[in-house]
Amino acid sequence: EIEGKNKTDVLLFSDRGTVYKVKCFDLKDHKPSDLGEYTPNLLEMEEGERILFIHMTEDYAGKLLIGYANGKFTQMPLKVYETKTNRRKLVNAYSTASPAVSLFFIDEDDDFVAVSNIRKVLVFNSGQVPVKTTRTNQGVQVLLSKKGSYMVSCRRLKESNIKDDTYYRNR
Predict the structure, then answer these.
(1) CB count, 10 Å around CB of 101?
(2) Is residue 48 within 8 Å of residue 69, measured between CB atoms?
(3) What are the distances in angstroms from CA 108 to CA 28, 75, 121, 126?
(4) What is the pLDDT of residues 78-107, one digit of tens each?
(5) What's the predicted TM-score (pTM) here?
(6) Mind listing the pLDDT tens digit for each residue in 129-156?
(7) Contact residues for 114 (Cβ-Cβ < 8 A; gap 6+)
(8) CA 50 – CA 40 distance, rounded (Å)
(9) Which of 7, 70, 101, 164 fits a 20 to 30 Å CA distance from 27?
C-alpha cells in the first residue's frame, strides 16, 4: 500500500527494463470488495512481463539503486525518468545485461546487504556506488561472484537479521 496525492506519477518498473508511468488520477478507485483492474491490461504489458518495483513521485527527487544478478549495482537520479510529454512507456529504463534482482528508492545514503546463491554476504553503503545519469549503464561491481555464483537478494541492513555488520563490510 502506497500513499500519494492525486497528481503524482506512479512509476512501475518491469523485469524487461521498462518503466510504465501512470498518473494517479488515471487509476480508478475501487471498493475492497471489487476485484480491481488487471495490471498487465491497464499498462498494456508484454506477455510474461512482471512488475518488480513501484514508486510514486511528484518532483522526481531522490535516487534509484538497482542491484543485478551479476553482483553489479547502479545508482541513478530519479530525474532521468521525468519526461516533458505524457509518455506511458519508457523502454531501456535500465540495463538488461543482467536480470535486476532488487530496486530501491533512496533519498539519502543507506546500508544494504547483498546475498549470493552460495550464501556469501556483503554489507555496503549506497554512497560507495557512483551516481550515473545514463539509464542503461551496467553499474559497478559490488558483490564479486565466484565461479557460477550470482546475487539472489538485496535488502536494507535495518531490515536484515545481521547483528555484527562490521564482519560483512567491504574493505
Answers:
(1) 20
(2) no
(3) 33, 12, 23, 9
(4) 999 998 888 899 999 999 999 999 999 999
(5) 0.89
(6) 999 988 888 999 998 878 889 999 999 9
(7) 67, 71, 73, 121, 122, 124, 142, 143, 151, 153, 154
(8) 8
(9) 101
C-alpha cell of residue 16? 524487461
CB-side neighbour CA atoms (13 Å) of 22: 17
Q: Strands of 121-125's sheet, edge to edge?
A: 121-125, 111-116, 151-156
CA 141 vs. chain centroid, Å, equals: 17
Task: Take residue 84 and report the three cell numbers written for it.
Answer: 516533458
d(CA 25, CA 50) in angstroms, rounded, equals 23
Residue 57 banded pLDDT, cuts 50, 70, 90: very high
